[in-house]
Model the fold of this input.
Amino acid sequence: MDLRTVLTPETVELHLQGKTKEDIIDEMLEILIKAGKVTDKAAARECVLDRERKMSTGMKHGIAIPHGKTDTVSDLVACIGISDNPVDFDSLDQEPCRIFIMTLSPVNKTGPHLQFLAEVSLLFKSAEKRQQILSTQDKAEVIKILTE
Done:
């Protein structure tokens, strides 16, 4: 999978305003709706929140990867949001998050979803990349940092 085909500047938001996990998830879904990637926000929201209830997608190092499977998308879609303020996301390391990567994929296709999560998790083993993402003001640059 090529992240560059999934992520575009219109699916990157540099200034998320949400203060809670639900706020952030709603904002991320709005990005996907505006970009024409998701048609049914309520169904998409339910699948993401359902996944969060099973286990938080707050990872380590201030990163969360809210995701879900839904028939409201025909192919994997994703967006990235960076929050100006750290948000409590029930992370594994108990640290609040500032980098959010949301992905939704069709219920019947697991391959792309797992591949996407694997690629994204590799990217964030680098403290340098995380710092670059938090400090850039350029949406295209975020994608470049992620895909280098």
